Each structure stands twice: as C-alpha cells, then as structure tokens.
Amino acid sequence: MNNASEAALAAAREKFFSGMDMPEGLVPAPILRSWQRCAEQGLDAGGAILAEPMTAAELRALQEQNEALRLLSRSELVALRAEAKLTDSVVILTDAKGLVLDTAGSPEFAGRAAQVALRPGVAWSETSTGTNAIGTALAERRAIEVHGAEHFFEPHGILHCAASPIFDPYGKLVGVLDMSGHASTEHTHAMGLVRLAVGQIEHRFFNRNFEEMTVVRFHRSADLLGTAREGILVFDGDRLVAGNRRALHLVGLDRRALRKATREEIFAGAALAMDNGELRSRNGERYFAAVSQPRARAPDVVGTVPRSARPAKDRPLLSPEASADLARSIRLVNAEIPLLIAGETGTGKEVFARHLHSKSARAGKPFIAINCAALPESLIEAELFGYEAGAFTGARKSGAKGLVQQAEGGILFLDEIGDMPLSLQSRLLRVLQDREVAPLGGGTLQKADFVPIAATNRDLKAMVDAGTFRADLYFRIAQYTVTLQTLAERADRRELVEALWAQVARAHDPLPRAVVEQLGDYPWPGNFRELVGYLRAMAALSDPGQPLAMVPLATVPDRPIVHDLPEGDVDAITHAAMRRAIERHNGNLSAAARALGIDRSTLYRRYVWKEARA
To answer: Which CATH fold would you assign to the domain 320-483?
Structure first.
C-alpha cells in the first residue's frame, strides 16, 4: 500500500471512529460494512481483544470434529507452506465459525502473529476479533483481503490477510483458508494463491459420496476437464443436489438453486445425452463434458435382497424377531405412536427406521435424521427449531426453518438421543408434547405434524436413574421399544455372510464354504457396519472369476473381543473394547474405529476424551 492509500485509510478511520460522515469511497465497501457490524456489536477498536485460546483438550476435540476438512486441505497447506515461508507469512485453516484449526508457514512470523492471537484454538470471527479477512470472509461469504489499518482493532494493523471461504458440495460453508503476513511486505499473489487452493479443496470434496448419483463435469475448454477449474453438478434423479461454484457460475445459478433446480431447467435433454463429449445448456451454450451415471443402489441390509437379484439360497436379512418388530412398528407409526430403537453401534438402527418409514403410511413424506451427538450445543436449538431474522449474530436475514419443521408430515429420526444435552431435553419434550414449534427470536408457535423415532446405543433407563436423562422425555419417546440384535446374538451369521456377499459383490462367485464358516464364526463386534465394510473391501480387492483375495485377518481378530472384556456395566465393557481396539491398532484411532464399526469422532468422545480428563 502506497503513502497516498495509507493516508486515505487513515482519513477514513478518523471519519468513521469520530462519528463523522461515513467514509464511503475511501475504503472498500466490504470493509466499511464490516466496520459497521463491529461498531453495532459494541466493539472498541482501541480496546483489548477478547481472544481466549482453547485448552489443548478442547483444541483436539475441535480438530477431531473437523477431521474431514483438515484431511481435504492438508496438501494445500503443505503446498502453500513454502510460499508462506518466502513471504514471511502463515497459512491458516479455520472451521465454519472462524476457529483456527491449523497453521503452517514462517516460524518467525508465526511467533509475531501469536502476539495478536493468530494461532490454533482462537476464534477469528468478526464478533471475536473485529474486521479481519477470516471473519469478514465468513460474514460476506466471499473472498476478501484486509490490509493493515483496514482491520477494526488497532493491534491487527500489523497484518495483511487474504482469505476465501470453503463451501462443501451442498453449498454449506465449512471453513476458511487464509494467508496472513506482515502489512509492511508486499503480498501481490496471496489472494490468487488462496483462491486456487480453495478451488482444489472444494474440487476434492467431489471425489467420493456421489457414486449413486449422476455427476456432470463440464467446461468451455476440454483441457480443463478433470482439473479443479471444471464445473461439477450432481443430480439425484432429476433434482440438482450439489455443485461447485464454477459450475453454478457457468450455468448462471447460485447456491440457492441447490435442491431446487432440475436438470431439465439447466441442460437441454432430460437424459443428459452427449454428442461427441459435448453438452448443451438451456441458453444454447455448449460445453465439453463428462457424465458419470449412478451405479445401482445396494438394498438396505435390514431389508431383503430383491428377488430379481437374489440367488434362491439367499434369505431375508431381518431376523424373525426383527421382522415381527417391523410389522408392529409400522402399525404404531401409522397410529402416530413414538418409537425407540435400541441396539449396539452398527446394528442398523437408522436403516431399520428408514425401512420402517418406507413401509408406513408416511412413506411419501420427509425422513429427517438428526444426530443429537453431532450438533454443536451452541447451535442445536437453531438447527432443531429454526430461527427468525436477526435472532443471533450470523443468522440469515430471512431466518431459517428448523429440522423439526422440515419433517412436516413425515418422520423425525432422533439418533443418539442419549447424547442430547440435558438443557435441550426439556425443550424437545415440549415440542413432542404440544406438536408446536417456536423458532428462536420470538417467532409465533407453528403446528408440527411428525412421528418421532428415537435411537440409542445407551441404557436410557440407567441414565434416568443417574439423573443424566429426563424421565419424562424417556417415557415420551419410548412408548414402544425395538431392540435390534447384535450379530453375535444371531445364530444364522453364516447365512447372513452369504446373503450380504450376494449384495455387495454381485459380479463375484459365491464365497467358498471355508470362508463362509470363518467369517460366520466371528461375532463381529461392529455388527452389520463392520461386516458389510469387510465384505466390500474383500470384493474390491478381488477380480471376478479369479481366486478370492482375503483381507488381512488383522481386521478380524483371532478370538472374539467379547471374551476379553471385563464383567461390569455397559460403559465399562464399551470402554474396555475401545481400549483393546486402540492397542491392537497401535494407537491409530481411525483404524480402531473402523474395526469397531463406529465413527472416529465417537471413539474420540467416548474413550480418548474421557482418558484425557481422567
């Protein structure tokens, strides 16, 4: 920034902070809007910055919650590290709330940056640290540079920051990538490097999870297909469900079109027919394109294998007990009676609930699944019940409909209900009793028509006795309880192995009898999730018509884990199983979680976090 620009900025600050006329034209409009937001929040530009760092345990938990984003961003942090060292800068990755997850770059500048709290575990939202590239990029939902005295707080005047928000394929803001250096140094390429890196991260989001949908990759230039500059749109049937910013820009849409627009409204030809690798949009523009058609969906493991695809010797995957429970549950849901599905991790509680929904009178209505353990406690009320415009800082101007209202006419599936904070249980109870929802911010009561189905792998009765779960909520959600069997309790495990193999490995020959016996004799502590994952891995490593490639038996311990567990309550047994799995995999939490058939975050919360606090 030259002397004239610095003088203009100094004049702008003088006008703004002295209460004179707005300094329009002296600073970029996004900076001025940010200053106004900060002033309206009562921040004092010359005061102390309230940026308390997290504890080490809290930071580990935060990083664990954002592990997927960190993994997708790791190569960009590594690639930018060298450039950051050359320009005496640091590269910063934050979560969707501006909390710093990781930093990389110049150790010298990192030390100085730490003096203004630019380090992991500190919040850099506007509400915490005023105008800054991270917080303002979050507020404006766009890439932005903030130089020197453009920062709201005076101590931040030593910084030059360039940041861009990161959006997932569904248009959700999941984090920010920032490059920060000393304001006295030229940072000509910082914004360009950050934009390119974010483009790579967002492109990497599409490498998985869309195998069962139609994925359209396109660009005006054939050379850019397969690169991070290609446009990507994803269709579930006819409906547009995901896409990157490049694609939306190419076809003249924005993120509001996700889950609303159809492919007929975007492309000419409902079947996305291509001519010589080209695709034509509704406005007549032609693109070079590659279209990936969805693979056939595998049937739910709690249902039955379709007759058209099932060998005669296959059998339904529901046990006789579960089949009877399903029939009763359908009648109860049709009578609007709440259910509780209990069972260990991996027994298929959500799959059972979805199958129940598809067979009930509410089959054509929404099935809204809520993981009560995954919602941040600070946002859970807004997520569940919605909010009015201006209900809290960062709220959308138009407000938002909550998950409860999104389930209108259908099923509200409350997974891991035992992990819902006690403070929220009373609010949920009121909604279940009255079937009315009041959004945050003083909204009027609105009627809600849904049937609640809760699920848990915990002993809710014991939690009620211990005072950690409300008795009145328990009796409200558990008017009928379905308890799913573990695979260890199933005497027909060999038949299940054969039936599941027929589903996940359709191109392969049936399993040899010795393999069926070996896998059928193992109790599978991770239940269906572990067994299906194991069979899929074995199928992926084996070529059809060739000898079977067995997955290394480290995945399947030589003796059942349950034999080594101590006697005691469920929590003690669970804790011991997790300890053994971590030891067996030499401290690799991801491998241990896979072996147990649970999410890594669950393993961290149920074992690592408790051990750290012990």
So the answer is: Rossmann fold (3.40.50)
